[in-house]
Write a structure and sequence with these properties.
By secondary structure, the protein is of the alpha/beta class. It folds into two domains: about 35 residues, no CATH class; about 170 residues, Rossmann fold (3-Layer(aba) Sandwich). It is about 30% helix and about 20% strand. It has a seven-stranded mixed sheet, sandwiched between helices. α1 packs antiparallel against α2.
């Protein structure tokens, strides 16, 4: 549908009628040939900006999918990158793709729920791309708090988001139409498929980060088209006693 090696319309329909995990298990072998995969151009630009202040020890890719971001961040990391995801199919594909990695720090993948991370002060850097639509609004605090706990004091969580588009924008209407269709699908079919757009926009989610204890820096005008309006968010876990506020 999107690429000769990508999923067909029927395969996408089957995915959409499956649960979130099973849907991504089905999509995993062809995921990198869809527009749902974060483009390398955006990933590489984020890595370039983040690495300006030096290399990081250990990094965590939250909701790693097929590992595109984990692989992109290897040049900015000194020790290792750990990718975590809830889909065994996506983890298997990420592991398969890692077999062709050239020289650089190792990348390993672990099964885990992004809203129930079990790490404690292990990472100097965390990042997540293309996954916020899977985090329901009532789970956003748990998601952010888990990342906070996973970071060492002074560690950073970086991600890209945007502001809410105008209601006159085609993007707003497409996103709302998709969300409405998904809500209807979930009302009729169990288990649900969790993926919604425009639920993690800025500055709407800023209070979630500040409540978790992060200090936040927002960087604009970093990206070329079609991502010119995208924002790079750097959320830092402070040093000192305040860094233990939710641990």
């Amino acid at each position: 549908m999107f690429h000769p090696k990508g999923p067909s319309f029927l395969e996408l329909a089957r995915q959409g009628l499956s649960s979130t995990v099973e849907g991504y298990n089905l999509l995993a072998p062809k995921f990198d040939y869809t527009p749902f995969r974060t483009p390398d151009s955006l990933l590489n630009r984020v890595v370039e900006v983040v690495a300006e202040q030096g290399l990081f020890g250990k990094a965590l890719d939250v909701c790693c999918g097929t590992g595109a971001a984990a692989r992109a961040f290897r040049p900015a990391v000194k020790e290792e990158v750990v990718g975590v995801d809830i889909s065994p199919g996506m983890l298997a594909e990420a592991t398969r793709l890692s077999l062709t990695d050239g020289p650089g720090v190792p990348v390993r993948y672990e099964y885990g729920d992004a809203c129930a991370l079990q790490y404690s002060e292990l990472f100097d850097l965390a990042f997540s791309f293309g996954a916020f639509g899977h985090i329901l609004e009532h789970d956003q605090a748990r998601f952010v708090q888990g990342i906070y706990r996973a970071l060492k004091p002074g560690g950073r969580f970086v991600f890209v988001t945007g502001t809410m588009p105008s209601v006159t924008s085609p993007i707003w209407w497409m996103a709302r139409s998709y969300n409405a269709a998904t809500h209807l699908r979930n009302a009729l079919i169990n288990p649900p498929f969790i993926m919604f757009y425009l639920h993690f926009t800025w500055p709407k989610v800023r209070p979630v980060f500040e409540a978790a204890g992060f200090s936040v820096n927002v960087r604009e005008n970093l990206f070329d088209a079609p991502f010119k309006r995208a924002l790079l968010i750097e959320a830092t876990r402070p040093h000192g006693p305040e860094s233990a506020s939710i641990s």
